[in-house]
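Section 3.1: Structural characterization of target chains.
Under the original work plan, the team committed to producing a structural model for every single-chain target entering the pipeline before any wet-lab resources were allocated. The record below documents one such target. The sequence was received from the expression subgroup and is listed exactly as submitted; it comprises 143 residues.
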Amino acid sequence: MTNLQNLAAPTGRLLLAFIFIMAGAQKITGYVGTQGYMEMMGVPGALLPLVILTELGGGIALALGWQNCLTAFALAGFSLISGVLFHVIPSFGLDGMQAQGEMINFMKNVSIAGGMLMLVSLGGGAYALDNLKARRRGVTAAA
């Protein structure tokens, strides 16, 4: 692996993780409002703690490169499901600009899922916690 690849992988993981960590933190500080929004969209508000755990826990695990494939795969699924529930379905019946904004948000979620699946495929990089631990044990792990 080149130096550029060695730096790109952890940087990419951090950038992808950032959106989940920030979203989870914002849901904690705006718990009641988020719970109400979820219920308004037909999603049980009782799922909010699981959503926060997924975003914060998954974001931190991703940033560290811990359980990289499992975490990235789970966050890809989470991104697609939340994109459909909160951006595609509400866009039906909206006027042009509102519908366009929802479609942009949906495509953001699809793009994030694509990035996560690339992490599943290519691995977390040389500085992922999984790979650092494997090197200590003398095992060659996926990049």
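Residues 25 and 56 are 7 Å apart (CA to CA).
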